[in-house]
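A quick aside before the break. I want you to see a complete sequence-to-structure record at least once, exactly as it would be stored in a machine-readable document. Don't worry about memorizing anything.
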Amino acid sequence: MAEGRQTSMRADALQNREHILQVAHDAFMQDGATSLNVIAKRAGVGAGTLYRHFPTREALILAVYQHDVRKLVDQVDDLLAEHAPLDAFRSWFETLADYVRLKHGLGEALHTAAAQRIINDTYAPVIGAVSVLLKACEDNGSVRAGLDPGDVLLLMGFMWRVGADDEGKAQARRIMDLAIDGFRPAR
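That is the input. The structure line, written in tokens, reads:
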């Protein structure tokens, strides 16, 4: 009986953690300076619960970033199942840009050794996701064969340097069109 209760508590704790991460993600997207107490209140948990999962602001910020990247990487197959490969590619990079803007908006919290380790750890899965998207686009003839996923990621980095407002998003779409034109097979 104690073992069953312990398992359900772990499931509850995991569910709490996931809920806190989503609330924190939303709060940080609105305002990178949102306090942990505000996040706990929005999540409907006590400060103790929040601090048990994330003992520092930096720990929460890094967990949100890692969680967001994991979700994004995990979305590739669903995007490809629901959309044409090039549309999936566009959508995926737009979402990545939103996550990276969030990261950049969190300033000093992401300039520590722990943050650099997390960011480095997320690079390989992101490159893997870009590889899958490029392969799908290559297979249907949307892009030429042999594009390097690291080069494409670096090039697409313009997306998180434009503004998050409507004008910036329109500019990102125009620049993405230019980049994709460069990815297309030779005519």
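Two observations worth writing down. The two ends are 68 Å apart (CA to CA). The chain is about 75% helix and 0% strand. We'll return to this after the break.
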